[in-house]
Amino acid sequence: MALTFAPAVAIRPHTPRGSPHPSPTFPVFTYRPAVGGPLDLPERTEAPHPANSASAMNAPFLTVKVYNDFGQRLPISYNSNRGSPTIVGNPGPGTLAIAQNTAIAVPRDFAGAIFIGQTYDPANSKIELSFNAPQGYRPGLDVSYVDGYSVPIVCSCSGVPVTGCNIPLFRTGRTCPRQSPGGDGLLCYNPKMNVPDGPADPFFQPCQGAAFTYPNDHGANAFGKCDGGDIQCCTNCPRPSLQLDTGDLLEMSGYTNETEIPAGLI
């Protein structure tokens, strides 16, 4: 069955009272990209490289599809790095309804991010993306929880999960070191956001190596895995191979058998 992608519904962003993180100013605001990820790029000082034979490299735009399989409406927002062209249409913040899908197109030389969470906060779970000349117009992609975790995200290329973590971290029984003031289970700020070499904080540890859980958590970098240009990301997807398997999760979480693991955790 063919999927229809609708634009996210644009609404006015809201910041919970007392939040230390104001609503982002679009299209540019400050957050911490993963070191070595698609947004950690040098300033371009040369002419763009010619596109090569891979389909994404030959295209003037790169398309990313985003699915909301989380079971509730989710705020979504976008950022373009300073000096980068904007996403086609320069979309502002909006919401994805339950089971709604959307797609964005980014031009060559783009570097930026897609933020998805239960509130508007630049520390939300994010998809970092680039389609940049220093990389020969090969897509750069990762899922980052460096600033914080709000919802699980996994991205696939040509149907293969390549980055992200589908473990709902608020359901692992681990304590978030600092939650957003908006309520329990909305957003956990990452205390290792300024600790380049980690290791991951215990709350984030189940996703270490699959999504960026500290700045140099390079296992999550999917550069070179998406040259076909077919990128799909969702909030409840099959896990990538780098994510913990059932046995690892049992050992780490203290469950004695697979039936004790909360539904949706594996």
Total beta strands:
13
Cα distance, first to last residue? 26 Å
Global structural class: mainly beta
SSE order? EHEEEEEEEEEEEEH
Which structural traits does this protein have?
single chain; mainly beta; 266 residues; disordered N terminus; globular; six-stranded antiparallel sheet
Describe the structure in your own words:
By secondary structure, this protein is mainly beta. The chain is built from two helices and 13 strands, in the order E-H-E-E-E-E-E-E-E-E-E-E-E-E-H. The chain has helices spanning 55-58, 246-253; strands at 9-10, 61-67, 74-80, 94-96, 101-107, 110-116, 125-131, 139-144, 148-149, 153-157, 160-165, 188-189, 231-234. The two termini are 26 Å apart. The model is unreliable at 1-7, 9-31, 41-54 and 249-266 (pLDDT under 50).
Summed up, what is this model?
The chain has two helices and 13 strands, in the order E-H-E-E-E-E-E-E-E-E-E-E-E-E-H. The protein is mainly beta and 266 residues long.
Helix and strand arrangement:
Blueprint: E1 9-10, H1 55-58, E2 61-67, E3 74-80, E4 94-96, E5 101-107, E6 110-116, E7 125-131, E8 139-144, E9 148-149, E10 153-157, E11 160-165, E12 188-189, E13 231-234, H2 246-253
Parallel strand pairs: 2-13
Antiparallel strand pairs: 1-4, 2-5, 3-4, 3-6, 6-7, 7-8, 9-12, 10-11, 10-13
